[in-house]
Fold each of these.
Amino acid sequence: MKSFVLFASFVCLSLNLLSQVNVYPSHWWVGMKDSRLQLMLHGKDIGKGSVRMNPYPGVRLQGIHVPENKNYVFIDLQVSPAAKPGKLQFKMAGTQSVTLQYELKAREKGNGITRNKGVTSADLVYLIMPDRFSNGDTTNDVVQGLRETMHNRKNPWSRHGGDIKGVQNKLDYLQDIGVTTVWMTPVVENNMPLMHEWGNDVAGYHGYWITDHYNVDPRFGGNKAYKEMVATAHNKGMKVIQDAVYNHVGSHHWFILDLPMKDWLNNWPAYQGSNHKEEVFFDPYTSKLDKDIMVGGWFVPHLPDLNLRNSFLANYLIQNAIWCTEEFGIDGWRVDTYKYCDEQFMNTINTALEKEFPKITIFGESWCNTPLGSAYFTQNNLDVPFKHNVQGVTDFPIAFGMKDAVLNPGGTAQLYSLLAQDALYKNPLRNCIFLENHDMDRILSVLGNSVPRLKMATGLLLTVRGIPQVYYGTEVLMKNFKNPSDAEVRRDFPGGWQQDPVNKFIPEGRIPEEQEYHTWFKKIARYRLTSPALQTGKTLHYQPNDNVYVYFRYTSSHRVMCILNPNSTSAKISSERFQQGLAGKKQGRNILSEQLVDLTQTMEVPALSFTIIEL
Ligand SMILES: [Ca+2]
Ligand SMILES: [Ca+2]
C-alpha cells in the first residue's frame, strides 16, 4: 500500500483540502502479459468528483467506476506492451482538486520465468511460523501504534518476536539439512486487536488475519525484510512459498472498516457459519442451500467471508497475488481454506498467476479426509460438472495414511489403498505431502513419542510421491498436542532467541536422542536431493504382506527400493516376489547403513524400520 498526499490546487475550498488517498496495487509494471490493470483508490469522498488521466504513451484509460461508497474509485487501464516505465498522472476534481502520481516500473530481470522458479517434488519444503522460529531483529518485536502490542514469550497466544530476518539467518542451517524451500505462514500485515479464541485473548501471530495485502507485517520486518529474505534464498539456490488467504480477511482489514460495496462480503440475515462439508461440491444429490452455506458461510465470526464473485474484489485479490509474486520474487503459493472459496474465482486467479509466471507452483489447502475430496479440488480425472485447475492440494488423506501405516496394525494396507486411488489425480506428484502442520497435533506426539515410529513416518514422507513438507522443529523432536490450544504445536524453536538457555540449531544444544534423529533426517533428506527416482520418479508398489510394505521409485536410469516394517518383530522378505521392481538388479546399497545388500537372497528386515536401498 502506498499513501499519496493530495495537494489541493485551491487553498480556499474547505478544511478537508489535504487528505490521503491510498492506491492498490501500490505500483505496477510495464511488460506484464495481461495488459489490463484496475486501480482501486480509497480516500474521503473521492468518488464525488471527476477523474482525468494525463496522456501517457502506451497507456489508455478504459473506464472509471464509482461504487455506492463514494470513498472509492476504480480506474480501468490498458497498459500496452509499448508502454515505458514512468509515472502516470491523474487529475481529480471535486470536493478536492488533486493530482495523483502512479508508478509503472520495469519488471525484474527474468520476466517472471527465471526468477520465479516454481517448487516441484524434487524439492523439500520446510514450514515455518515466523513468529515462533527465530528472532533476527529485536527492534521490531513491538511496533507502537498497531492495535495490539503484546509481546510475551511466556504467553502462548501472544506474539513472541520471531521474524523474517530470523528465518533468513537460518537459511544455511536449513539448506544443510536438505531443505530447498521455505514456506512461512502468512507474512502480510495482521493489524488486529486481540481476539477471543480458545478461551483466551489471542494475537494474530500466525498471520491468517490479514488487514493489508500490500504490507508485510512490520513485526516481521516489513516489505524490505521480505524482499531481502527471498533474494537471499534465491542466491543460495533456495525457493520461497507464500501463504495466501482468499476466503476471508481479518475483521479490521482497512476495506472491512469502510466497505466499498454492499456485496463485498458474503452476507446473511444473521451470522451463518460454514458447514465445512466439502461433499457439497461433488455430491450429485447436494442442495443449493448446503453449497451456499459451505462457500458463503463464515469460517469464524471475526473473519469476514469475502464474496469472490464480486469482480472488483476479485481483481483486487488477483492483482495482489501477481504483485506479491513480482515484487518479492516468490516461487509458489499455498492457498489457505481453498475449499471455502468460490470455485470459478479460484480457477481465474490460478490462470492469471500462471500466465505471468509460467513456472509458479500453486497448491490449495483442501482439508479433505478422502482421496475423492482431495482430487476434486485439483486437476483430476473425475467426471464432475466443475473442474478445478490448481496444480495440487495439501494431501491430507496421505498424511493420515502415512501416520496409520506406522502406528496401527494393518495400517500399511490402508496406505497402499490410498495410494492406489492416485488414479483420481491428473498428477499426484504435484500434491504437497506432510505428516503435520501448524493446525495439527505434532507427529511425534501422535506416534506416542516413539522416535523409531517417527523415523518410519519420515522415511515414507521423503520417499512417497509428492512435494514433501516438514514442519519446523520436528528435526529436533519438538512435540505436543493441540491441547489446550493450537499454540501448543507452535512453540518457539529452542535457540531462535538469543536469551534461550539451549540452542537446538547447533549439535551442542541437542540431547543425544535429538542429535541422532537430526543426523538420520539430514542423511535421507540430502540423499533425496541426489535421487531422481525419489524426487520425480514413478512408483511401483506391492500389496503389503504381514503388514510389511515394499515399493519402488524409479526413472529410466535410477531405481530405489523402500521397505517399511512397522511390526514389533523382524520380517523376512523374499526378493522373488519383487522381480518387476528389482528389474534384474542383484545388488543394492542401503543408503542409511551404507551396507551392500544382496538382492538374490531372502532379506531380513528389522522390526520398526524403514529401509531405503539404492539399486
Ligand atoms: Ca523480532
Ligand atoms: Ca467462503
Amino acid sequence: MPVKIEVKQVSKIFGSKGSKVLETLGNQFDKQEVMQRTGHVVGVHDATFSVNTGEIFVIIGLSGSGKSTLIRCLNLLHRPTAGSIEIDGEDICEYSRDQLRDLRRKKIAMVFQNFALLPHKNVIDNVSFGLRVRGESRPDSRQKALKMIEMVGLSGYENEPIQALSGGMKQRVGLARALANDPEILLMDEAFSALDPIVRRDMQYELLNLQQKLQKTIVFITHDIQEAFKIGDRVAIMKDSKIVQVGTPEEILTSPANEYVERFITGVDKTQVLSVKSIMHLPGCLVQLRDGPKLALQEMRMNGVSSAFVMDQALRFKGIVNLQDTLQAIKDKQPLESILVHEVIEVEPSTTVSDLVPLAQKSPYPIAVTENGRLLGIVTKSAILGSLA
Ligand SMILES: Nc1ncnc2c1ncn2[C@@H]1O[C@H](COP(=O)(O)OP(=O)(O)O)[C@@H](O)[C@H]1O
Ligand SMILES: [Mg+2]
C-alpha cells in the first residue's frame, strides 16, 4: 500500500522559544527538568512514522505521553516545532492558508472524545454542518447527511436533538459528521474512550465494519491496549513524548522493543492477536501421494512420529496417514491414497489462535495451515498450549 502520511522527525515544544529549547534536548531528557529549566513543555519529541493508504494506524500511550499533540500536528491544529509532515507527498507545513483550509475541509476530518457536536442542533444539522460550510446547497447536504446517518445506524433519529442521545449515539453522529465530507483521512482522538464498555465494543465493531466499505486512512488514538490491538493494522506506542515502537499487534506481542513495551502489553489476551502463522511449524513428516506406504513408514520412524502429512505433486495438501493404517497398507499392498484421512482441519494463516482453540479440541490430528490448497505448516496442540502460556 502506498504511503499516505509521512511524519519525519516531528517535535512539538510548547512555549515561545520552542526551537531554542529543542536544540538543547539530547535524546534523553526529563520533561520535568526541561519544564523547570525553561518553562517549556515537551509535547512530542522526534516522531517518525508513516501511515499507509487504507490502514488503521493506532497511537497508544498513557495520559500525557503526547498522543493528542501528535495527532493534532497531522492537520496542523498544532504546528510542529521541527520536522515535516507529508500527505500524499506534499509537506503540509509549507501550505498556504488556502491550501490548509482546503486540506481540513476536504481531505482530513477529525472525531473527538467529547464529540464536539453542536448541542442545540439536531442530528441531521450536525452531520450536514461541514457540507454547508463548504458551500454545498441545503438539499444536497441533507441528502448526503441522510446517507451517512444511515451508514452509522442512526436512521430514524435525523430530527432528534443531540441532547436527547446517549453517548454511543452521539459518537455515531460524530462519525457521520466526519465522514459526510468524504475525507480521505480520519483522525480519531480517543473517540471511544468516554463510552461504556459494551457501547465501546459496539463502536469498535462498527468502525471495522465501516472501514471494510470505506477504506479510509485512519489514525486512531487510544490508551487501551486491547482496543489498539483489536482495531489497529499497526500500532505506535508512545512514552514520555516519544514513540518507542511501531509495528503490527503481532510484531509488538512477539518482539516488544523494550521492557516498557513488555509491561504495557502484559495482560493482553495474546490469542486474540496471534495468528496461526506465528505458532505453526513445518510438519516433521511429509510425504507425497505417489510415495508408497513403506516410504511413509520410514519417514515416520525417522521422525519419531505416528502420522505423516501427505501432498500431491503440485504440493497441494491431501490429508494425513497414521501409523496403524500405514502398517496395514503395507501388509495389504495398498497405496497411500486408500488410507488417507481427509478429516484434517484446515485453516488460513491469518486465523487467530483464539479461533483455533475450539477446532483443536475437536481434532485428533494437528491442524493444517493452508493457502490456496498449499500446505504452509501445521499447528499441534502443544504449540497452541505454548502460545497460551
Ligand atoms: N496547548 C498546550 N500547552 C502546553 N502544554 C501542552 C499543551 N497541550 C498539551 N500539553 C502538554 O503536552 C504533553 C502531552 O499532552 P497530550 O498530547 O495532550 O497527551 P495525551 O493526549 O497523550 O494525554 C502534556 O505534558 C501536556 O500537559
Ligand atoms: Mg489526549
Amino acid sequence: MGDEVVIELIDIKKSFVSGGKVIDVLKGINLRVYRGELIAIVGASGSGKTTLLSIMGTILKPSSGKVIIDGKDVSNMSEKELEKIRGKKISFVFQNGYLIEELSPLENVEIISSRALGKKSYEIARKILSDFGVPERANVWELSGGEYQRVAIARAISVMPEILLADEPTGNLDSKTAETVMEEVIRICRENKLSMVVVTHNTEIAKKMDKIYRLADGKIVEEK
Ligand SMILES: Nc1ncnc2c1ncn2[C@@H]1O[C@H](COP(=O)(O)OP(=O)(O)OP(=O)(O)O)[C@@H](O)[C@H]1O
Ligand SMILES: [Mg+2]
C-alpha cells in the first residue's frame, strides 16, 4: 500500500432533523483512504452507510468536521469547484442504480467514459460490458435488475476514477454473480491503483477488501 492519502475524514458529524426531532447519524468519524486501498463498510440498515459515502463523495455536507481530498479541505469549496473534483477523481455507484432511460446500456457507459477516455470509449464500453456479463440490449428497460446494476457498475469504473464509491453495488445480484462482478471490479482497481469504498452486506465480498470497517452508533471501527 502506498502512503498517499486520497480522502481523509476528520471528526465528521452528521445530524438530520426530521419531524422536529434531531437524529445524530454520524458522531465523529475519522477515516483515511490510501491510494489503491480497497475498503468495505458494513453495518445495520439505518446505521449511516449511505450518509457516510455521500459525505466522502462531497454530494452531502457534514454538520461538522472536515473532508480532505488530495490534501485539500473541500468544506468551503463552491459547487463549481466540487463538481470539478468529482468529475476528475470520484465515481459513484448508487444504491438504486440510476441509468439514463433514454439511452441504450452501451450508450450509458459510453457517455460517461468518453469524458475521460475520448475516442476509444466505444470499444472500452463494449469490452467492459462484456467483461461484466451484460448482454447487448437496445434499451435500459429491457435489462433485468441484476443486468441493470452491472451496467451501473461498469459505467462508474469505466472512467478509471481515483476513487470508486459504491453503495451496495451488487445488492440485486445472486451471491455467485455478485462475487464474479466484484472480482472484476477489484481486478480493475488493483491494476490501475484505484481506491474503492464499498458498502456491502456480502461477507465474502467484504473479505476480499484490504480493510473492513463497521459503522454502529454513529462511530466506525475497523474489524480484524
Ligand atoms: N435527508 C434525511 N433526512 C432525515 N433523516 C435522514 C435523511 N437521510 C438519512 N436519514 C436517516 O439517517 C439514518 C441513516 O441513513 P442511511 O441512509 O445513511 O443508512 P444506511 O446505513 O445506508 O441504511 P441502508 O443499509 O438501509 O441503506 C436513517 O435513520 C435515515 O432514516
Ligand atoms: Mg444505504
Amino acid sequence: MKTVEIFEGPRAKTYDESIRLWCPDYDAIQGLLPSLLGYHLGINNDKNVLVVGSGTGAEIVNLLQFSDTWKITGVDPSPEMIVQAETKLRSSDNYELVTGLVTDLPLEQKWDAALSILVFHFLPDDGSKLHLLKNIAQRLKKGAPLLLVDIFGEGQSFEYNLSLLHAFLLSKRFEPEMVEGGIGHIRKSLFPISQERLTELLKEAGFGEPHMFTQSLIFGGWVATQLS
Ligand SMILES: C[S@@+](CC[C@H](N)C(=O)[O-])C[C@H]1O[C@@H](n2cnc3c(N)ncnc32)[C@H](O)[C@@H]1O
C-alpha cells in the first residue's frame, strides 16, 4: 500500500503556480466548494469541516472567507505545504493545521463535512484508496457530505481528455518538453479510476451514491454522504 504522496522542495515551492497550469479550471472548481458545502451545512451554523490533503491552503482560505462560523481542520503530511498554508492563514482564526495523516486524527472527534481535493489520484487502487476513504468516513457524522475532486477516468475516454489537456497546454505556448514530461507523469505515475470504481469504493467505505457536480477534462468532482 502507498498511503502518502509527499510534496517537498521545488514541487512544494511552485505548487500554487503549477496546479493552475495543469488543472486549468482549478480556481473555478475551488470557487464552487464553499457554496456547495453551504448548501449542505448552512452558512451561519457552527460546523466542523475536515480538509484532507489541505496542501498550501486554497480550500481553507475560501471556506474561511465564506463562513465566519465554520471551524476548519486541515491535515496534510507535507511540512512544506503546511508552512505555505500557515503563511496565507496567519490573519485568520477558526482553523487548525495538522501535519500528518487522517489516521493521526482522533476517532472520537466527528466532523460535519470533509473535503479531499486532488489527493486520491496519488494512491493506487490496491487498498490504499479504500483505506483513506474508510478513515475519513470513520471521522464524519452520519449524513456528513464528502466533497472529492480528482483526476479520473479510464480507457479511451481518459486518453481523449488527456489529449485535450495536452493540446490546451501546447496552445498556451508552454515548452513542449515540459508538457510532454507532465502528461507522461500523469499517464505513468498517477492512479485515476473510473466513476464506477469510485462509486464502489465510496460505498464500501460507508458513503452513499456519489453525485458528480463538475467535470473539466481529466478532473471530476463528486459529493457523497456518510451513511452510518
Ligand atoms: C495536489 S496537492 C492538493 C492540495 C490542495 N488540496 C489543493 O487542491 O490545492 C495534494 C496534497 O495531498 C497531500 N497528501 C498526499 N498524500 C496524502 C494522504 N495520504 N493524506 C492526506 N494528504 C495527502 C500532499 O502532501 C499534498 O499537499
